Amino acid sequence: MATIARNIALQEIREKVVAGERLDLDDGITLLESHDVLELGELADLARRQRGGTDDVFFVNNLYLNYTTICRVKCKFCAFARTSKQADAVMWDIPDLVAHAQQVREHQEFTEIHMVGGENPHLDFSYYTDITRALKEGLPGVDLKLFTASEIHHMTRSCDMTHEQVLRELIDAGLDTLPGGGAEVFAPRVRKIIAPGKEPGAQWLETHRIAHGLGLKTHCTMLYNHVETYEERIEHLLSLRDLQDETGGFMAFIPLPFHPQNTVFERRGWKFSTGQDDLKMLAVSRLMLDNIEHVKAYWIMISTPLAQVGLSFGANDIQGTVVEEKIAHAAGAVTPTEEKIADLVRVIQEAGKIPVQRDTFYNELRRWDARA
Ligand code: V47
User: Fold this and answer.
1) Residue 181 Cα to ligand 1 middle (Å)
2) What is residue 1's predicted lDDT score, i.e. its pLDDT?
3) Contacts of 311 (CB under 8 A, 6+ apart)
4) Which residues contact 47 (CB under 8 A, 6 or more apart)?
5) DSSP letters of 83-146?
6) Which of 83, 106, 182, 288 has its CA 20 to 30 A from that of 68?
């Protein structure tokens, strides 16, 4: 689009945002095509405030666990998965994993465990319910955010149960919420290239629909910066927005930039995302997802300095302390694997915002005053 036409289109979008009108596919594409990242940030922040957003910025004290790295799917973007024959494949015994989490808790009072693994073909369904129950009993008061929709789908196939049955049994064992992983990009064209062995995007959405129907609040993501077009990014966001209209079950959206190192795509010369694209994705997500309250600037994948700037581009959550992140680090993330609470607080305060430590469900646990 020529510059003048783009400026007119952006002006029309601004008018819609000011009037509180919903943005459509063309608006989303126009926003992504714009290089005026400051305008996008300002619009996103305006939209966030218009919908009741304040200066509060949330974070959670959380522990990441990966019960296995063994996965049958072989997604081309993934540097984390292993086959069971690889020497560095990981498969945790349940008591050892619980003991490990308990040890960490002796010096870090995390309130959430975020645990994902892979589509491991060697596990019975009882492993998943047993590990959930063991974590719940061994770590009282800790919210359990376990298993992506893709893992839930894998359980249904390997154990011949419906999604509802699997989710009911996991909830009964202590599951509190689903993380947003596995969504990637819903467009069949993209999935066929980057994740041909994964369930279709429609199934990912259906699994969350069922989870919401059972009373679970969940998370959603999009993996960008690979083969997808701007149109496919926006269509993905609109699918999430439609489901949210229907169920109201998503608590937060997290844009995830693809990291190419140690993946098939690295050998094809693919690059890490740039800061401009990361900020655009935060702003455009906030603008398009007018019905999802929280947008996370995931410092693990975009760096802490950029996540801080992201707080002026529509994000209102900086995710967490994240002890022991492995998925992004297997693919070349150069960020630390953990941030201390004091550091997150400083980053938020220096952005002119108010740090609020939350639990998984955005209940406030502690609030810091704005810096004088
Ligand atoms: O589904 C895998 C992505 C996801 C790579 O729910 C990669 O609050 C970049 O879903 N480069 C798992 N990304 C992580 C995830 C997540 C993260 C933070 C918060 C939440 C939440 C969820 O990571 C996968 C995939 O989309 N991923 N490989 C890679 N090379």
Assistant:
1) 5
2) 65
3) 57, 297, 318, 348, 351, 353
4) 17, 286, 287, 290, 314
5) -TTSTT--B--HHHHHHHHHHHHHH----EEEE-----TT--HHHHHHHHHHHHHHSTT-EEEE
6) 106
pLDDT digits (tens, 9 = 90+) for 302-337: 999 999 999 999 999 998 888 788 989 999 998 888
Among 164, 152, 143, 167, residue whose Cα is nearest residue 116: 152
d(CA 232, CA 238): 10
Cα–Cα distance, 303 to 297 (Å, whole number): 9
- Strand 317-320, strand 56-60: pairing: parallel
pTM above 0.90, yes or no: yes
pLDDT tens-digit profile of 205-252? 999 999 999 999 999 999 999 999 999 999 999 999 999 999 999 999
Size (the chain), residues: 372
Please tell me the residue having the least CA distance from ligand 1 atom 10.
181
- Going edge to edge, which strands form the sheet with 354-358? 317-320, 56-60, 354-358, 364-367
Phi, psi of 220 (to 5 degrees): -140, 155
CB distance 360 to ligand 1 below 6 Å: no
Q: What angle do CA 65, 71, 74 make, to 5 degrees?
A: 125
Take residue 91 and report the two structure tokens written for it: 């498969």
What are residue 318's phi and psi, to 5 degrees?
Answer: -115, 15
Looking at the domain covering 54-367, what would its CATH class be? Answer: alpha beta
Q: pLDDT per residue over 263-303, tens digit each?
A: 999 988 999 999 999 999 999 999 999 999 999 999 999 99
Beta pairing, strands 354-358 & 250-257: unpaired
Kindly report the CA angle at 297 between 34 and 82, in degrees rounded to 5? 105
- In short, whether 259's Cβ falls inside 6 Å of ligand 1 is yes
182 lines ligand 1 (CB under 6 A): yes
Block residue for tokens 């199934």: 203
Residues 6+ apart with CB under 8 A from 93: none
Ligand 1 contact, 263 CB (< 6 A): yes
